[in-house]
């Protein structure tokens, strides 16, 4: 809140305190005086100092009784929400889209805060191993919080995620919602589809599916799965998909990378697909390839290519059923565990793009 107050005193947000209307029938305090008192009260609440300490600190000349009256008459949930919405919208309006982008993506997550048992919402929860409450945040792409909720620790994060997308009340148009596995479920995907936004979970065990494939010896030249930051930086954000079970565990994933920065190859990507060995034979790889093909064709990408070890016959068969063809063999292209390995170069040329 204290950082918000700094912004609120700027010339583009003079109406910030104007959102705090009185619950009384009339108020005779001059606007400049009321504005100063409101900022002091908001600072006391936002900085967790309390009105009493703010009243005796500084040379503002306002008594504790006066500030408490302002708190009682002007500061409530409706006014706070309206003021914060105004602050967020002014921030969006001041941004240069060339630098910041349009800001149509949002991410959400929860954080547990310890609280006294006298708080009606306090719960002891196994996940947090202590009493407290849960705050669920929605933060748009460039780290501006657009919605927050106070919840009990056992509250549904899926419901909190959907509520934030629908009720944030700001000017941002959210078309993509990133969440962790606690905010993703079959129900969540269904509601996201009906409500017209894409739910994009951040599964925590993506690396385990890849490592399981690596350990079998016929998936890749790599011997260990990369760290998430390395993986995330290399893959195209609009062409990555994960298959999850009903508990949010990763069954498999697929992702694509650019093959070149040259403009002639803008429609060519290289993909990787991994399915956990325990979930093979359930159509996971086929479903992931179908999702990748649909997303790349919609983006105007005409060729998907990859390399497969000849010994990986199951992967080769799945790709051929999806329309891939072998275009050559790169003989003894690399060493894997001190052995020279061949790689089959496969590709799928989109029939939808001339």
TrEMBL record:
GO biological process entries: DNA transposition
InterPro entries: Acyl_CoA_acyltransferase (IPR016181), GNAT_dom (IPR000182), Tn3_Tnp_DDE_dom (IPR002513)
Record Gene3D superfamilies: 3.40.630.30
PROSITE patterns: GNAT
Protein name (record): N-acetyltransferase domain-containing protein
PANTHER family according to UniProt: N-ACETYLTRANSFERASE (PTHR43072), UPF0039 PROTEIN C11D3.02C (PTHR43072:SF23)
MF GO annotations: acyltransferase activity, transferring groups other than amino-acyl groups; transposase activity
Pfam families: Acetyltransf_1 (PF00583), DDE_Tnp_Tn3 (PF01526)
Keyword Transferase: yes
Key words, A-Z: Acyltransferase, Transferase
Highest taxon above the source species: Bacteria
Domain N-acetyltransferase per the UniProt entry, residue ranges: 199-347
């Amino acid at each position: 809140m204290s950082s918000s107050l700094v912004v609120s005193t700027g010339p583009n947000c003079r109406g910030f305190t104007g959102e705090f209307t009185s619950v009384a029938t009339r108020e005779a305090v001059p606007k400049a005086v009321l504005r100063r008192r409101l900022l002091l009260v908001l600072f006391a609440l936002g900085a967790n100092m309390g009105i009493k300490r703010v009243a005796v600190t500084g040379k503002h000349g306002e008594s504790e009784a006066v500030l408490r009256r302002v708190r009682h008459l002007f500061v409530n949930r409706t006014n706070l929400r309206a003021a914060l919405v105004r602050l967020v919208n002014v921030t969006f309006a001041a941004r240069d889209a060339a630098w910041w982008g349009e800001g149509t993506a949002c991410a959400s997550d929860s954080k547990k805060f310890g609280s006294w048992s006298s708080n009606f919402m306090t719960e002891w929860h196994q996940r947090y191993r202590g009493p407290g409450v849960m705050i669920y945040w929605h933060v748009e792409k460039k780290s501006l919080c657009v919605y927050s909720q106070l919840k009990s620790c056992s509250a549904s994060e899926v419901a909190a995620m959907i509520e934030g997308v629908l009720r944030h009340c700001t000017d941002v148009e959210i078309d993509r919602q990133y969440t962790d596995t606690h905010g993703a479920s079959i129900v969540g995907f269904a509601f996201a589809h009906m409500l017209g936004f894409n739910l994009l979970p951040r599964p925590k065990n993506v690396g385990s599916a890849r490592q399981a494939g690596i350990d079998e010896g016929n998936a890749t030249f790599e011997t260990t799965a990369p760290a998430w930051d390395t993986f995330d930086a290399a893959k195209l954000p609009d062409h990555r998909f994960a298959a999850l079970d009903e508990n949010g565990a990763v069954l498999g994933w697929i992702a694509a990378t650019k093959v070149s920065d040259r403009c002639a190859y803008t429609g060519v990507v290289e993909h990787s697909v991994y399915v956990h060995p325990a979930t093979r034979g359930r159509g996971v790889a086929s479903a992931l390839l179908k999702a990748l093909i649909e997303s790349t064709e919609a983006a105007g990408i005409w060729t998907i290519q990859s390399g497969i070890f000849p010994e990986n016959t199951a992967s080769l068969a799945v790709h051929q059923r999806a329309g891939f063809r072998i275009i050559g063999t790169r003989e003894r292209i690399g060493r894997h565990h001190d052995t020279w390995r061949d790689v089959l170069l496969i590709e799928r040329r989109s029939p939808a793009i001339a």
